[in-house]
Amino acid sequence: MKHALIFNVISALTFVAAVFFLWKNNLNYSIEFTGGTAIEVVYKKPADNEAIQKTLAEIGYGDAVIQQFGTAEHVLIRLPAKEGKDGDLEAQSVFNSLCQAQSGVMEQQGDKSQVCHDAAKNEPVVKQSVELVGAQVGKELFTNGLKALLAVVLGVMAYLAFRFEWKFAVAAIIANLHDVVIILGFFAFFHWEFSLSVLAGVLAVLGYSVNESVVIFDRIRENFRKLRKATVTEAINNAITSTISRTIITHGCTQMMVLSMLLFGGQTIHYFAVALTIGICFGIYSSVFVAAAVAMWLGVKREDLIKPIKEKDTTGGAVV
């Protein structure tokens, strides 16, 4: 806690920078929020994303998002919604262009599945499915996502205030919102796509960060009982030090799992893993250096958690 002011200034500057980039760049919402068309295509050999992007740019879809998922042959093409454009016609136009780029001939299979044959009757590219997301549905998803985030925040505050004390509840929420805003700031700064899976990652980080804060707060309360002569700062320092090994082991193991998803999980869960990676790193930082420090600034003291014991009347005298 001797360096709490320095760390809190760093946190404040990082938080302000994240808010600035959110205000300036806004989030790059996926079609799940904005509406649009998602086209799943399968190539016979590993897909060339740059060639696909170039082909789509030639027909006016330069803003399409190309993602590989599952295998290198599977590609998901996301087209943002455009006013006056029919999603099915857009999907057909995109597949026609991809087929022509492969010098193939298209053949219908079922309602939405189409196959593009080359001269040797192979299937260089297959359109597996088309998914249309309306703008109204996207708006509802965005609204429900915000409601979920608000519900988590209020639930965490109520839990901490009931289990500990309102100062700890305020400190934990400030620390956790600090994590959330910084994650969103990264996505705004780098123009990474913000999808429902990323929102799920943000909510997971909230719960994960609260867990670390609760462990430290619980140890602080225990120290107030055991270390009667210790000051508030000494009790907090002891709580952080005594839980640091658990923090390193727990978060280290979790981070290894998340990094494996980030490196080998494919494009589908890439940004979900990115959100978790950033969130875990800042979650450790905020629980140790932000939540405990804010509780100290708010004036938490032994009497807030340990109620003084009333002295018993030992006179034994009768009431006259």
Features:
320 residues, two-stranded parallel sheet, 10 helices
Structure, explained:
With 320 residues, the chain is an alpha+beta fold. Helix content is 63%, strand content 13%. A hairpin with a 5-residue loop joins strand 3 and strand 4. The protein is elongated, with a radius of gyration of 27 Å. The mean pLDDT is 81.
Q: What amount of the residues lies in strands?
A: 5-15%
Pick out the low-confidence regions: none
Report the count of strand segments: 8
Question: Whole-Å distance between the termini?
Answer: 55 Å
What's the helix-strand series? Answer: HEHEHEEHEEEHHEHHHH
| Rg value | 27 Å
Main pleated sheet: 6 strands, antiparallel
Helix content: 55-70%
The 3D shape can be described as elongated
What structural class do helix, strand and pairing data support?
Answer: alpha+beta
The number of helical elements comes to 10
Mean pLDDT level:
81
Strand order of the largest sheet: 3-4-2-7-6-5
Task: Provide a quick synopsis of the model.
The protein is of the alpha+beta class and 320 residues long. It is built from 10 helices and 8 strands.
Describe the secondary structure blueprint for this structure.
Blueprint lengths: L3 H22 L2 E2 L1 H4 L1 E8 L5 H10 L6 E4 L5 E7 L6 H15 L3 E5 L3 E5 L7 E9 L1 H29 L2 H25 L2 E2 L1 H31 L5 H33 L5 H28 L4 H4 L15
Parallel strand pairs: 1-8
Antiparallel strand pairs: 2-4, 2-7, 3-4, 5-6, 6-7
Helix pairs in contact: 1-6, 1-9, 5-6, 5-7, 6-7, 6-9, 7-8, 7-9, 8-9
